[in-house]
Specification:
elongated; SH3 type barrels; mainly beta
């Protein structure tokens, strides 16, 4: 069985000389990251499993320590590498109204029965997640992923139902 991997961050640099690394990640993910026991880093087209010993957080990044990586030289090969978990692990931490980004990209966006665009990306402005929606005029509009605007997400039928407030998709 082939594992699908989901990126959860990036090793930005080393931290100190004990093999710790600075981990960049999306806002408000500290609880999720603090529960992860193993991650994967892609080296030479292979995903190498790393066991997480501990992680702590600074205002700007996470400081992560892996088993068996105990010196500055050990961690350097991982600098600027993306950090992954299996899709199964990522899904196990999703709340009821949370989705993986790759599930949302490509979904058709509807206002009632009228198609108004499609999801081309997801981002976060610090306050909320934002859907990048390409409207029918091919313009990209940011739609706050909040219950008042995004009424429902139907992964199976590939549809997002929104409350298209005036000016939202123009």
């Amino acid at each position: 069985m082939k594992n699908n991997f989901v990126s959860i961050g990036k090793i930005l640099n080393f931290h100190g000389v004990q093999g710790e690394a600075k981990l960049g990640y999306s806002k408000n993910r500290e609880e999720f990251l603090s529960q992860i026991k193993e991650v994967y880093v892609q080296l030479d087209n292979e995903y190498k499993k790393l066991e997480v010993l501990r992680i702590r957080f600074t205002p700007k990044c996470g400081i992560i320590k892996f088993k068996g990586i105990d010196t500055l030289n050990d961690i350097l090969e991982y600098k600027n590498k993306l950090v992954f978990v299996t899709e199964e692990t990522a899904r196990s931490f999703l709340e009821e109204d949370e989705f993986l980004i790759d599930e949302l990209v490509g979904l058709e966006v509807y206002d009632g029965e009228k198609k108004v665009g499609s999801v081309v990306g997801v981002s976060n402005n610090g306050a909320s997640d934002l859907l990048s929606v390409k409207n029918l005029d091919k313009k990209i509009c940011l739609v706050p992923f909040v219950k008042a605007i995004v009424l429902s997400v139907d992964i199976k039928n590939r549809k997002v139902q929104i409350n298209n407030l005036e000016g939202l998709l123009s």
